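Pipeline run #58 for the internal structure catalog. This entry was flagged by the ingest filter as a single-chain record with no existing model, so it goes straight to prediction. Upstream metadata was stripped on purpose; only the residue string is passed forward. Reviewer on rotation: M.T. Logging verbosity set to normal.
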Amino acid sequence: MSLQRMFESEYFSLPLALVYLFKNDHPGVRTYLVNKLFSYPPEEVAFYLPQLVNLTLKHEDWTDIGTYLLDMAAQSYLFAMNLYWHLHSKLDSRQYREKLDTMLHDCEMTLVNGVRPQRAKPAEPPPAMFPIAGEDWVEGEDAAYTYKQHRDDCFLLQSKFLFLLTGLSISLIDRSAEERDKHLRSSLQAIDQVIEESRAKHQSSSPYIKRLFRGVVLPTGFCQDPDFSLMQVVRIPYDFSACYKTKSRVPYKVYLEMVSIDEADSVQPPQAYTAPIPPASDLIPHDTDPGLGSRRVEEIERERFAGLSEYAEKVEKAEQDGIEFSSFEQSDPIPSLSDSVSEPWTSISAAIKAASPYGLMNTWKLRAFIVKGEDDLRQELLAMQFIKKISSLLSSAGINAYLRPYEIYVVSHNSGLLEYVPDTQSISSIHKQCPSLLDYYLHTWPEVFPEAQKNFAESLAGYSLICYLLNVKDRHNGNILVDRLGHVIHIDFGFYLTSSPGGNINFETAPFKLTREMVDLLSYGGTEILQYFKILLFKGFLELRKRKEELILLVEMMKSAELMGCFVKEDKVLKELDERFHLNKTDEQCMRLVEDLVSQAKDNWRTAKYDAFQRYSNGIL
């Protein structure tokens, strides 16, 4: 079959188009494939924006991809917003800074004018940003200027909202523990007032503009669900926010009330605050961008894992000498860690909804995010792309290995938002209540224990595949959650591929985490569920081998992305990732491989010692 016939085939998918685009150097083929990208929906292409942006920056002669991205941005305001923030997150790059400034300028012009700069016709009104049910983007006198101004105002509101949220996390670092919660809530109240002031400013505008500025539009979920309803942030219930205590950073949880942009107002706008509130800029000092000129993320990572290298040396020497090393656990006090059990999501949602002026609206929805400053979320986003892709592939194949992807919104190279997964608690928190996972499951789900045990096995299989293929590290018990149905959910993918904590000493060597208490839970009542776990691993592994090229492409297109920690040994990244798929093995040999991986992971002594280090250094149980 000729290339052109294959490209025109109904089976030629977007992932295949990207494979050929990336691997084919012929200018004619590349031009054809870039034009082919226009046939795919913007929300489908947006999933690959980190990779496409990286390609555009790396290759001086690939200007056709940059042009394509701006044309798609002109077609979809949401796509343009995503493109802008992906570009903005790379502003720490010295190598590409000049090109980034140009691309960001062009993206901003596209956001305002509705066409890419080279095609701009200043006299024409730009298209509507979003189709709003029942409202028209009406043209009239001075429409070109007026609506460009509204597009600009909408984008500036979103930018200010995100910069203030992430800047707040950074500003909390230097405050005392006693001051943090008070400062957090007063600052969030001020950010909430920014939304209210924008709403008040446009109360006398046309129905479309009034609806548009009712809240802040964030393209959350844009890349996952093409049929999603566009939601606006209309209110921040700041009294429910809370700081998290970590060793070097102060992330916090913020709740956001959202309503669909399509639902007409059924309530009066909330009254203005009676007490004067300082401007948000006074409470959250920052320049234009909180991500620039701040402490290096690498310095904080070194602080987080101070002592790990020395600890590893002592543990390994004790192992060689045939003695048990446990002096840290015995002689050093365990610091307290704020890891309390959260109130059920339904209770929190009901309480916030009852007090909200928007609570009676049909589309009212509560979302929560963890806001992080001084933390590079770009490689976490890459890991989440991998998880989303694998989740989709396994689901399509009918394999019940459970994964729970979560949304990540990168604002700058060291700040962003992560979706909070409701009704979960970490294994560390569980250990404060029960002596083991088995006791917790028996106590929490006494009537439906077999179902919860099965959910545990299915999710453990899903994340074991992720941890093995991506070589995920830092799998302590604070980074593994349990949800209300018994699924485990892994979070915080700061170390994977060729990076590891403590200066890449690679202390954790197990292919995935499978502790003694996990085996006890799988084996309770017989070996049936343990075997089911192994079968899911085997079936999932065979299925993912079929899509190896598609999965590796996600990583390969990001290779040489400047300052991505997971590429610390760049020459080994793709080679080792490719080897973990074992394409040279038969299905029978893969079955033995899965058995070997389970044996290596089962009650692995390095896994146990890493958990011990986390108990000693961070109080994670």
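catalog note: The chain has 27 helices and ten strands.
catalog note: Strands lie at 216-217, 231-235, 242-243, 252-260, 365-373, 408-412, 415-419, 424-426, 480-483, 488-490.
status: ready for reviewer M.T.
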